[in-house]
Fold this protein.
Amino acid sequence: MKRAVHLATWLFCLSMAGCGAPVVPPMSLGDSALSAQGADLKDEDVFALVRLLSGENGQAAHLDPAKIRKANKTLSTDKPLRDKAYKVADPIIYKVFSRPGKTDAVPPLSAQDMQTLKASLQPGDVIQCGNDGSFIHGVFYVGNDVIIHALAETINGKPMVGVIKETLTGYFDRVDRDTVVVLRPQWTPGQLKTGIAYAQAQVGKGYDSLFLTESADRFYCTELVYKTLTIAKVARIQPRYVKDAWPIVMNEEIRQSPDLKVVYTKNHS
């Protein structure tokens, strides 16, 4: 089956920096926004960083972790600058995430698998799915076959970008997935109401192509799950820090939460 290109692509470009790819000259947009923040990091540094972190060039080894932390903080708190940076990162991420993936030998979920999966679900569950034993996507399950998740893909010519609400059936009908884990928090009725309301309120927001876990005007897939669970105070999840500087939450961090119970698995131990 086909394996989608996923969030790990971006992470790989940062964590495996120094692979020899050429660096594109940084964009120069002036440093007024950053100066207003009192940061000694120029706009062109931030935009070069955005390009590097987005996987366009794949070489970030020369960037100081202190500058990466400062860029993350500045982008997270300065919305006008963040909006400019998204214009740089969006087309890069959408292009990468829409590429056809490699094939593997594991068959996709069968109709019987889907029936078993659906029968296991309860409102508030977290669905992680992927291919060949790895995970590339995280989904929040609302109930009655409805999911809320963040995508950055073009599928059959149709853009699927940002936080959307759709059926789990519809999602699995258009993508090949062979690996699934369902995680269940121990919701109270009040927490579940809060979590579902929060996830619902994000529908229509854009995809977080900067992977800014500490801002909330856009979301990447696991960021939406992370914030839904933590705002509802139902799960403790610890972000990782890329280059010891850039906080990000992947599926692994969510699975490592002591407050989530595995209730279903397919092709994952």
The chain is about 40% helix and 20% strand.
